[in-house]
Input
Amino acid sequence: MSFKGWPAEAFEFYEELEANNRRAWWQAHRDVYDSIVKAPFGELGVAVADEFGPLHLFRPNRDVRFSKDKSPYKTAAAAMTESEGGSAYYVQLSSEGLMVGAGMYHFERDQLERFRQALLDDKPGGRIVGITDELTRQRYEVTASSTLKTAPRGWHRDHPRIALARLKGLVIAKTFPRARWQATAAALGRIVGVWRDAAPMITWLDEVVGPSTIPPREFG
Output
């Protein structure tokens, strides 16, 4: 089936989950999740695969092992696909609406080093400033997993690209409050519109920063 957005009941499902975040409630409503949340994400994945690659829907269960909050389920559904250079395309559904983003949310140490080194060079540094300024003019939020309150070590606080240098990642995001178009085929255009607008930034990140070569951490 072609992607026609998510029905209003999908957003209402997460409203109810916020008030009933218990395994018994989830089990009683699992078929609802499968039909009005998971299934449309699958249809979206088919629709975007040729241009953006396979879309992965994150599991609904929370990892509560190291959290004080033991609520078993996430109060949002999210899916992601990646470019060949390691940048991500992201879409999230919650009771509030949709959030669509793209970029590298968190740099590993080697990525952060390459990112800041590029910012010190006027050519690539000036290029990404121009790209992010244009995205800001298009009313995208330019953000990251976290931001330093002061300058990175070795940087002057008055450096012309200090605002970007403080970021520990680089993504754009746009939030869409609940609206009727989210239950129609128009949702596809809104989602991929964000991802396509991000193309200059994605190209820069893939070419300049690239994937991390640091092995994943092992636990236990």
Notes: The mean pLDDT is 95.
